[in-house]
Design goal:
mainly alpha, Methane Monooxygenase Hydroxylase, Chain G, domain 1, elongated
């Protein structure tokens, strides 16, 4: 299960992270221009929400493709162990 493989939502996921990256840069500029802390906190919350949504898309993609593929190939232990580890870090 290691190595390169393709996903159906790669472009969608990459686009989400590009938007998040731009949003984080905007927050940095807000800090540097000494904008109101409340405004900055609201923007940080928006980025956290966007990251959660992106994580959900990655999670769904992983379940629908990587885990299903591992089950088909009867190679479940390592992929499931990695998945459980990643999931425990993702969901806190």
């Amino acid at each position: 299960m290691t190595g390169s493989h393709s996903h159906t939502n790669t472009k969608q996921i990459a686009n989400r992270f590009s938007k998040i990256e731009g949003h984080v840069r905007s927050i940095k500029e807000m800090v540097l221009s000494e904008r109101d802390c409340s405004e900055i906190l609201i923007q940080i919350a928006a980025v956290q929400s966007a990251l959660q949504k992106a994580g959900k898309v990655v999670l769904e993609e992983h379940l629908e493709h990587c885990i299903v593929e591992a089950i088909r190939e009867n190679d479940q232990k390592e992929p499931l162990d990695k998945f459980k580890d990643a999931l425990s870090k993702f969901i806190r």
